Amino acid sequence: MIRMLAAVFFILALIRAYFDWQAASLSGVAIEFQPIGQVWFDFDRDSLLGLQPGIERYLSPVIWENAVGPMMLWPLAPALFYTGLFFAAIAIWRAFQSRN
Length: 100
Prior knowledge:
Helix content is 83%, strand content 0%. By secondary structure, the protein is mainly α. The protein has 2 domains: 53 residues; 40 residues, no CATH class. Helix 1 packs antiparallel against helix 5. The longest helix is centred in the first third of the chain and has 26 residues. The mean pLDDT is 94.
């Protein structure tokens, strides 16, 4: 299951990188990865606009200001790739542990 999650995140990272590359090539500029918040806003504006007040009201404003808000500025394709690496590392570690 964890290997499948790693593969899904790697595939999503490749797809997102392709879209970012296409946007850059159409506009004639160097490739620039879109931030998570921008992609989410373009995909489903209402859910993103409801996320901040929901987190601030039901959890804590500190969580939005120090964790979720800055994460919205991360580039999406590398974030997906590193998440895939994380799951791949867990899968490798679990495979190593089961052999010993």
